[in-house]
Design a protein that fits this description.
Helix content is about 40%, strand content about 20%. By secondary structure, it is of the alpha+beta class. Strand 2 and strand 3 form a beta hairpin.
């Protein structure tokens, strides 16, 4: 194993981090972080300043590599997807970065989807009908900020912009290119058909490369800002979820990662791109992974840990005018949930508080709790929500298997804040019938980027060997046979029928809420 260090940057929605990985030991030796400043020029808009993003990256890199910068072998960048910025011929960012979750481009997106068709768009790009993709943001900019497009020469996703600031190279990787809605998953090139439908030239987009490709070297100016050695190799990273999967060791086809935070995303690796109508209808994404020659099948729920947070803070411990002791409130709620029996004494929770997510792809669906009696207490409510979130994952795995025939194996690797909840992880094992392996990797996304940097400069021969070099701890939760049988029965007899039965009622509620301004 070579000596030296690898730097990985994670440009996230709430913070920007740089992790420094010791090649010899596989240990993270330092981490530096800066907040991601979000601006709201209108109540329903969210933006980032590209100059502030770069300044925060530079400060984080300088701090994390202090005293070791001369021995940094390479640096790579992972980031949030869908967001980007137009850049001029002389390298100036021409506007703000519209946040990935900002839906101002919904009218433009609807026109694009009508023009190309949801099924055809999925066959080309592997993406489902949403407004967040880069191409939709570009349509909005053409309608509302035409001067930017008139002066622009390149659209750069967030990680691409940081690579550009580091090296002067205009480049992207396959995984972030996939989240533009303009990238052909079969040819791995910019799609003439999608760009013609949107009326943009292919020249607006940079060359796309596999993750783990050296695209340039740190310029003297970037070195002065970051403290890196001039000439340090700059390498493509990728979409943040996928870089995190590499750090967690989930790099083999059929391997399954469950990333648990405010939202929840699960990632299944496949060898081939196999678009189907079932995947379109289920709201699954299917696109290039950061692992070479692999694709990802991705599903998600917009509020998972965030839904537990809402229950604990807004319902179970709501006291007007009082300051919530969040840690104590969560500890109490989880202790009560542990004391409640599996099955929550007949209480069931449909966890659609921010829409259904996959596999129903219904943004109008809402949460429901059913089966309550006066015998239920706070522990039953909390446990029922945890069980509902686990049923949701099982429903997704069943839908993926039915749509693709891909075997997912017997192990789910879990990362993120929610994975530290022992009851949640054991329930997930019991509901899905799979071993849940909780992996503890500090700053997984940044570490995944650092590993791809190592692949780019030959420190590791493959992404798999890079993933195997990381020092990580894990705890396994094995299904309990008796509890699994109980959950099998409850899932089949009750949970699977909840959404189909409630769907039309949910739509009526949504329509009434819109009329009332809710």
């Amino acid at each position: 194993m070579a000596d030296g260090y690898l730097a990985g940057v994670d440009v996230g929605t709430t913070s920007i981090k740089c992790a420094l990985l010791d090649v010899g030991t596989g240990e993270v030796v330092s981490v530096a972080s800066r907040p991601t400043t979000t601006r709201h020029p209108r109540p329903d808009w969210s933006e980032f300043d590209p100059t502030e993003i770069w300044d925060a990256v530079a400060e984080s890199v300088r701090e994390a590599t202090a005293g070791r910068a001369e021995d940094v072998c390479a640096i790579a960048v992972a980031s949030m997807a869908e967001s980007g910025v137009l850049v001029s011929a002389d390298g100036r960012p021409l506007g703000s970065i519209i946040a990935w979750y900002d839906n101002r481009s919904l009218p433009e997106a609807e026109r694009l989807w009508e023009a190309i068709g949801a099924e055809r768009a999925f066959q080309i790009t592997g993406q489902t009908r949403q407004a967040k993709f880069s191409l939709c943001k570009l349509l909005w900019l053409r309608d509302h900020e035409p001067d930017q497009l008139a002066e622009a020469t390149t659209w750069l996703c967030v990680a691409d912009y940081v690579l550009f600031c580091l090296s002067g190279a205009r480049a992207t990787d396959y995984s972030l290119a996939s989240r533009t809605l303009a990238f052909d998953q079969v040819t791995r090139t910019w799609s003439a058909e999608m760009l013609a439908a949107a009326r943009f030239p292919p020249s607006l987009f940079p060359p796309a490369f596999p993750s783990g490709t050296v695209v340039g070297h740190a310029t003297a100016e970037a070195a002065a800002s970051t403290g890196l050695r001039p000439g340090t190799p700059v390498v493509t990273g990728g979409h943040d979820h996928l870089c995190g999967a590499v750090a967690a060791g989930v790099v083999a086809p059929g391997a399954l990662l469950d990333s648990m935070g405010t939202a929840e995303a699960y990632i299944l690796l496949t060898r081939t791109f196999t678009p189907s109508l079932a995947l379109v209808e289920g709201g699954f994404s299917h696109y290039c992974h950061v692992v070479p020659d692999c694709y990802v099948l991705l599903g998600g729920l917009n509020a998972s840990g965030g839904q537990v947070d809402w229950l604990v803070s807004q319902i179970l411990n709501h006291c007007p005018g009082a300051q919530l002791d969040r840690d104590r409130a969560f500890a109490d709620a989880l202790a009560d949930a542990e004391a409640a029996p599996p099955g929550s004494a007949g209480a069931f929770w449909l966890p659609h508080i921010a829409g259904s997510g996959s596999p129903w792809a219904d943004d109008r669906s809402r949460a429901a709790i059913i089966g309550l009696t006066r015998a239920h207490g706070r522990g039953h409510l909390t446990r029922a929500l945890i069980e509902g979130l686990c049923y949701w994952l099982r429903e997704n795995l069943d839908a993926l298997a039915a749509a693709t025939g891909v075997e997912t194996g017997d192990v789910i690797t879990a990362i993120g804040g929610g994975s530290r909840n022992r009851l949640w992880m054991q329930t997930k094992a019991d509901v899905t019938g799979r071993v849940v392996r909780v992996v503890d990797v500090a700053e997984a996304t940044a570490v995944g980027a650092a590993l791809l940097a190592g692949v780019g400069v030959g420190v590791y021969p493959t992404v798999a060997s890079a993933a195997g070099s990381v020092s990580r701890r894990s705890v396994e939760h094995t299904p309990d046979p008796a509890t699994r049988r109980l959950y099998d029965r409850l899932y089949e007899r009750v949970y699977r029928g909840l959404y189909p039965v409630l769907r039309e009622t949910m739509r009526s509620i949504h329509e009434e809420a819109v009329r009332q301004g809710g």
